[in-house]
Structure formats: structure tokens, C-alpha cells
Amino acid sequence: MLLKDYKKYIYYLKSSGICVVSAGGCWILYQLHQISEKVRSSVATNVLQLENIHVQYIYVDDPRLKEIFMFREKEDLNSYVKEKPQNLTNIIMKWWKSLNRSLAYRLLYMARNGSKKERDKAVYSLSNLKHLKDWHYRGLAQMLDARTAVSLARMPNTDLRFFLPPPYFHENHKLFDLIERAHKILLKLDNLCHSCHPCLKQFINRKFKDFHREGLIFDHDLVSVGLAVPPAITWDQEFLQNCVQAIHHHSSLEQHSKDVADVGGLAVLMNIQNKFKDNFNMKILLAKILSNLSLHSDYLDDIFRSGWIGILAAWSRDEDIRLSAPAARALANLDLDDNKGEIYSQRIYPLHPLHRNRTQRKMDVIFIHGLLGGVFVTWRQRDSQFLSAEIVDPCPEEFDSFSEMIDEYPQEFVKDLAEDLKMREWKRIGHDFEVVLHDCPVNVNYQACGPYTCRGDDKCMESKENRCKTQCWPKDWLSKDVPSVRVIGINYDTNLSTWTPLCPIEGMRSTIKERSDEFIRKLVLAGVGKRPVVWICHSMGGLLAKKMLVEEWKNGDKNNICKMSKGIIFFSTPHQGSSVAALTQATEMLVWPSIEVKELREQSPKLLKLHANFLKMLDNFPMDIVSFSETKSTLVTALRLKFKFVNPKSADPGVGEFFEIPQDHFSICKPANRQSFLYQKVLNIIKRNIENSPQKSKSVKEYFSISNKVS
User: Fold this and answer.
1) What is the pTM of this model?
2) Alpha helices by DSSP H, 276-410
3) In this structure, are strands 624-630 and 657-661 parallel, antiparallel, or unpaired?
């Protein structure tokens, strides 16, 4: 009996406990719910969702929210903003964008930590990613290291948002403050080189004589309060550009090319760039300074931290070759994963390719300008205003009547439509015709051969190419016709008279022998001699090329320059000198000609000896020789006189093909368009030697087997 009562009590106790626990739990959940509602009504608890709130709050790209500030009531806003329909297209796009984001971070990790082959693939894939948000680019930019940043900067399709803005880019410095900082940099450069650069010392003493060294105050600040007279030199933007020019001139000396970074000049130059973003000449000077500094790859981190990589990437895509070439040279020198130890020194400019590409380089084409020329001046396209702009006009009457029928349409529309119809008709009948090339020679030797004509349906006949005038035809035309070549331009300064102020240090290397020794050393650093070479030279540039080849031949061709040289193209090169350089003794005392002019005298013993050695070198290393000679006199605007700089007898080397072209000395190296005989002959020589190169003779199977071994 007692046992039954005990079990009954235990049962009641358990039941009561369960009821109490259940009721208590429900009460606790109810209280938590009430507390949560009160907190949610007073505090936005979703602030803890940092990533989602960051995207939705800062980067709103939904077009439905473009009028969000027009609504004041919450109901109006909710009624206006509707959810996107969750159809299959939206789901796929959302999944694709999420995959791109995840892939971007994985590729960045591989680009930073993978092997060289993996890094190259990752950088290529990363530069081609699309559908990333702006904040994704900024996040990836903060994770970049210097090496990966340079690799991305050299990809032609990389989004510039991969690169963070320069430090303190929002600061707006005053002009006088920038001049003061530039003055400090110049003083530090002078102290660092122990005043061994006379030009730098002279510039500081002459331009900053009004500068108070003790208080570091400009006289301009005292002029404003009437305590000083205005200085003789105006402190303006042009004066600051002269200061940057002095810094560039100092950095052009090989032994002092890294001094700018050692004295903290990268930050000052960045401040100047931020202040004068629209000054094109200033940007060219800054790009050249950085390209000189890029010879020292150990300064890559300093250049990266100061924000220059992204700016160089933007400059390397500029249409003007004067800016894109030095910027591309700087990035190429800093890109240790791709340059294969090939360094572009001062005066050596890569013209193609300016960026990374996967095309195998089969040949080097080297351009050397002549007296008073330049890599960005000599190789321009000639003005074609005297040439007919139309290729063919099959039925002009029909087009005139057609134009009258649609007078109500804009004139530009009529012109474009007529041009399209002409080109369509030309493509239809173009294969039945050949067009005589511009600049056809008026006289040739027995070894000369074409091409003198071009097929009507050839690519070079497209009218779009004719309308786009180029500043550098080696860069723009050869890159399209033979993309597998590397185009290099050599740049150097020359003078006609020693009356012109010269840098004492630079003036010591002005003879043909001294310049050839300098250039052959720099070309070897750039990797010339590893693949076939074609030289293209204008005027005195041909003498430099001959001197380089002769000196290499005498030294046993240890760099394989002569062996790999397959052709030389001379544009009015004075092999026997020029009659313009022949001056009387009285005139010579008055003009005081430079060393370059003296070496170009007609029948100069040095030139005759050089040419004799050149012909002997050709016996051991035969190559294609093509020579063009001018037939027209050149108008010298300063003297208002016409001169024939190089006569046909001096321009004929006595070997190879020889053509007399109806052009003057300055325009003979500037083809009018891609249908010019001057350009088509150059293209013919390059293509012929590429096809005959040993690399071309390998079968496709052998090529892929070698590629797999290298990989």
C-alpha cells in the first residue's frame, strides 16, 4: 500500500516539474522576443553584417533606386522598390558574378605565391576578368604586392582600378611649395654626387639665386607684403618644369640614375604629377625619370609604395608615343617575371610590344635616326595632303545622284554611306587590279626588285588605315603586319655647332666610335643577338649601324650581333660623306661645327675606311642590303635655302639593292601611307628573313614538344 502511494507521489512530482519547466521556457522565450523587438525598434542590429551593408550602402547600382531621394514616406519607398523577379537569367548572372569574385581572389593568391608559370597564367586570367564591382577592385588592389602590380600593369586589358590611388593624392600643394621641394631635391642631388655634374650646379646657382637659404623663404612671399623687390626669374609653372627637366637630365647619367630615389624624390615628383595632371610635357619628363630609375629593380618597392605603378600603366596606353614609350620601358624593366633579363637602358626604347603578349618573338627590328633627328620625330608618317584620298571611284555619277536623293539626311551620313558603298565595290573587283605604290623609285640598280605594286584587295589598301595618321609608323604598322617582331628605337642627341650649350659629360661621347660602343653595350643588355636582326637607319644612323657591326666583327662577334644580322636598310646614308658638311676655313671659324658635322665631310678618310671594313665584314656575314637615295633638295627653313644633303653617289654603298626616291632628305624615311614603296620594301625584307629564319623551319610537332619541355 505504501509502495503504491510512493509511486503516485513520484508521478505527480514529475508531471508538475515538466509543466513548470515548459511554462518557464515559454516565458523566457516570450521575454527574449519582447526584448529583441524593443532593441530592433531602437537600434539597427543589421550593422553587424559588415560585408552586405558595405555593398548595399556604399555601392548602389540598382537603377530602381535612382530616385530614392524623391520619396519621403516609407510606404512610398517600399511601393516603388520592388524585388527583382527571380527568373533563370537573374539566377545565372548572380551565380556568375559570385563565381568571378571568388575566382579573382584565388587568381590573386596564385599570382602572388605560385610558380612562374602559374603566376603568368594567373595574371593573364586576372586581367581579363569582368563583372567585378568597384569595391572588389579596391579590395584586390590593397592585397597586391609590387611584383604582381607590375605584371598586371603590363597587361593591355587590365582594369586600372586594380591600382590604388597615389598616397595623399587629394592634397593640393601650392606652386611655390612644389618649387621649394624641387629645390631641396636638386640640392640633395648635387651633394650626393659631390658637385660632379656641372650642369646641375650651374642650374642651381643661376635659377635659385633669389632663394633665402637660411629661412627657406621665397622672395615672392616678401614681395606680397612689400618687403622685397620682384626677383629676376618668375616662379611659375614653366620654372617648375625647368626644375623637373634638370632632375631628368641628372638621372640620364648612368651613374646617377638612382639618385632621385635615394634623396626621396619619388614623393615630390608624385606631388608635382598630382598638381599638373594635364601638363603633357611634364608627364613626359616624369615618365623618363622613372624609366631611368627602373634600371635598378631593387627600387621596385619604393616605386610601388609611392603609387607610380598605376600611373605608368595609364601612361603606357596613351596614344602619344612620346609618353607611352618611356612608361612602357619603365614597366618592362621592372617586370622581372617577363623581361628574361633584357633591360632597356637610357636611349633604348621598346616600340613594340609595349605590353605583355603571348606572341613568340622571332626577330628584332632596330631603328636608328640621323643628325638632328629623334626616335619620336624621324619615324613619323609623312603628310599626305598632296595625295589623293580616294583609292577608286567606280561610278561617281551614281553616287552624286544618290546623294541628291537623300539630301534630307546629314552630310556626314551621306559621306559614310558613300564610302561604305565604294569599299564594298572595291572589295568585289579589287582582286582583278593592282595598284602602283606611292614613292616608286625613279632609278634603280640591276639588283633592285619590288614590290612596286599592291593587289587591290590587300589589307594595306583599306581606307580606314589611310585616315589614321601615325606618329610612329614602326610601332603602328609593323605591329599589325608582323606582330612577331620586337621593334626597338635608339635615341641620341646631336648638334650642328658647338655654339649650342652642351653638357660637358654628354659632350664627351659624341663621335661615331664612342656612340657605337655605347649603343652596342646597351643593345646587348636588351637581348639583341639572341634572334635575327634587321637594321633600319636614316642618314648618320646608318654610319652608326655600320660602325657597330664592324667593331663586333673585329672583336670576334662575341655577342652574335653580326651573325644574327639579316639585313640593313639605309635611308640616305652618306657612305662617302656629305657635301653640306664641307665648309671653308673662314666659315668653319664662324660656324664652329660640331664633331658630328666634321665626321660627315665628303670623302672623309674615316668614312671611307669604315665603308671598306664594312664590305669586308659582309664577306664573312652576308645579309640583305637595301639603300634609298633622295633626289630632291631639302628646304632649310632657318636659312631659306635648299640643299641636297646626300647625293646618290654617296648614298649608294655599292652592294645590294639601290633605289632613287623622289623625296628630300627629311621625308625619305617617312612613308605617306602603308601603300608606300618605302614601307612595303621594308616589310618585304622583314617578312622574307622571318620566313627563312631557323625558327620557322621547325615543324609544328617539334615546336610543341620544345614548348612542353620548357614548361
Assistant:
1) 0.78
2) 280-293, 300-305, 308-315, 321-334, 396-405
3) parallel
